[in-house]
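Protein folds are increasingly written down as discrete tokens. With that in mind, we are printing a sequence and the tokens encoding its fold.
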Amino acid sequence: MKRMVLHIVLVFLWTSLAACAVADGPSDVATFSIVGFDPETGELGVAVASKFLAVGAVVPHARAGVGAVATQAFANTSYGPEGLRLLDVGMSPHDVLEKLTGNDAEKERRQVGIVGANGASATFTGKECIPWAGGKAGRYYACQGNILVCEATVEAMALAFETSEGELGVRLVKALRAGDEAGGDARGRQSAALLVVKEGGGYGGFNDRYMDLRVDDHPQPIDELERILSIQLAYSALYKAGALRQEGDMVGAVEEARRACGMNPNLPEALYDLACYYALSGEKGKALETLERALALEPKFKSMAKGDPDFETLRGNNRFKAMLEP
């Protein structure tokens, strides 16, 4: 009987919490996020996770050379573009928050994190955000969350960012992972996203979206975000390898392609390109071994390898011929 009563109470509390989240309008974007800045590269970004469909379409906003904004809870999505505009005209993150919330009748239901292109940061949590809710701002970052299991989520994110190394996108996702492991969203998991900007960082250099990765609906969204981030990083290394090859630097091309394979060992494109560079460098044994691994992962590459001039030095090799058979 006691267990039955406890079960009923828990169901009632959970139902009440869900009702609060959807009352009087759209559901709250219950989430935990981090905005960050890398002073060495100038990169700015946002990483976010939530029990909310397609959180990447709502929370993250960033502009190269200006700043990054995460807007959540009973999210006012105008805070993103308006916050960036105010940063761009020289306002500090703290003053931007005061400006954004100053005339907002629903400000006590909002939550925002901001970091500027000089590393200054600020975070705001309205008094009516569903607990646990709060944030922490530090040098080059601000993290915040609502409807969390406990404060440990935000503290773990801050510590992970402060102590991690590498590209900004990697550090932001590490912080997200730390927050999730410390408790995360009290309702569970559904989506995650990463947005990182830098000058000319987008495809072809035509915009600033260096990384724009979204997991809209997945039972383990942070796992999936980490997986696609590893592909993004591997592709970035492959682009560098290709550029070095064009410059005649085969040693550098091999090194970057090897780095790409290290980031994602099961990416057939990376293995195939590395095999090409090995063959062009005269390392036939390594070329054959690496190509074999690539074809095991993606047999369709056999037809491409048959006519690829990069493998000209391997044409008479019996092992090469055998691996290209149907």
Remarks:
- The two ends are 66 Å apart (CA to CA).
- Confidence is low (pLDDT under 50) at residues 1-25.
- The first strand starts at residue 31 and ends at 37.
- The beta strands are 31-37, 44-50, 60-63, 67-73, 110-116, 121-125, 134-138, 141-145, 191-197, 209-215.
